[in-house]
Amino acid sequence: MSKGVLFLLVTILGPVWVLQGQAPVPTIWEQRAKERFTRLTSTMKMEISQSQPQDSGLKKKKLKKPKRILLFWRCETFIHTSIPSGNFALQEMARKTRAFSVELADEYSVFNKKNLKGYDAILFNSTTSLKFENEKQRDAVLSFVRGGKGIIGIHGASDNFYEWEGGAALIGGQFNGHPWTANGTWAFKLDDPTHPLNAAFKGKGFWHSDEIYQYKPSNYQGEENLRVLVSLDMSKPEVREPLSLEKFEKFNSQYGPGPREVPVSWIREFGKGRLFYTNFGHREETYKDPVIMQHLYDGILYALGFTSADATPSAELPAIPVALAPEKPASK
Known about the structure:
It is a single chain. By secondary structure, the protein is of the alpha/beta class. It has a single domain (24-316), classed as 3-Layer(aba) Sandwich (Rossmann fold), CATH 3.40.50.880. The chain contains 11 helices and 9 strands. A 9-stranded mixed beta sheet has the order 2-1-3-4-9-8-7-5-6. Helix 5 (83-97) links the parallel strand 1 (67-72) and strand 2 (100-105).
């Protein structure tokens, strides 16, 4: 066989080990993930590990039976390079706190009622454009959370379910661009400074570098359904500035004139279950930030039912004084 013919066969059918039947042909997702991700170095792992909560913060009797999280990380469109950092951070969080275990999965077959019975929460780690294979899988997820289990979403978890309205509504919002890009440092306010899931921020707004989404007005669940915890601090000119750029002008007409809220973290009750979502997590560096990681951990405990927290929708609450961010530090 000539080299040219062999090259053509390998290009069409796969490498030699595939032709010999020694391993399965990689799926498009598997191949794209392999090309997109890089191995975490020992230094990166150490920095991530050191940034996780050092203990559970729970009474010992609650730790007698750690809860189980199914961590799903598949992507059908954009693949965030921070996913391996997030997966490792959550594994280290589980190891250190012993409050839960984390089991990684990227095949849709895990979403069936029999399998989900063994878990206490599903966590979507920056998944994008997920397409469940059938109605049974969709029903399994909705029945899971309505029956009293938890749903946790990190960053790209809101960039999903474009063919499933119920899934988009469950998360609370659906991606509609990110004027606040990953190379920027943005101001954040606490919508409820005394809420237990905001305890990591010690009652103060803050600045953080990450990519922040806005959500489709057509299906964002809004403050009528969500308890918003953290938002962009639109009082800061640095945060308002991207909306004045020509490439983002289209969004101004979508959202209408005047100031608007851009939520970042929220919770909600869904049937007997609980959702925690945070838009933090685009950048690998976020998983090295102890404060953001504590916020994530507290949200996970809430979704797992370990801790209780008021999930009354924000619109139903009396006015709460928000905690704005300080002026942007000169070093940022």
